[in-house]
Structure of RNA polymerase sigma factor:
Amino acid sequence: MSTVALLPPRKKPKEESITAWALAARGGDTEAVEHFVRALHPDVRRYVTFLGADPQSADDLAQDTFLRALSSLHRFEGRSSARTWLLTIARRAVIDGIRHSSARPRLADAADWETVVERNQPRDLPGFDDGVVLAELLDALPDDRREAFVLTQMLGLPYAEVALITGCPIGTVRSRVARARGSLMRWLGEADGT
């Protein structure tokens, strides 16, 4: 790990300064490289951790991000902010890390690895039967309510985006989702006998 990553950040620099440092670093200015890395290291580390890296691999991924960025600085033209450019590289580093680790077999410390795998299976998740029941309940909803519910609650799209997709006002989307929820809760209550 470089000493740059260990130095405490002063005050948070502005985007223009960071981009200017990246452009100067591209030209060979070693002090600009130091400023660039120091300014963005905390953000990169936080971002790769957020994307699912465990704390031990987050440091490695952050370092990999900066190695990739510094080796390709000659291609950075400043059309976007240096932060955006670097976080795009960080995202790719995380994806590559996940691909790499999932392609490699994992070693088990236990002699009976099958028991270990069974114990570590997720619990309290809907099973096949629950999934069939949910699909049947969703099919029972009117088409407009089902569409709004699936887009917002299952796919996680914002109400405004669903309004654009469906061609109706946001208030209508909210109403459809609320009615779909109410129907589903009522039907599930009836099925449970409550």
Summary: The CA atoms of residues 114 and 120 lie 10 Å apart. Confidence is low (pLDDT under 50) at residues 1-7. The longest helix spans residues 170-192.
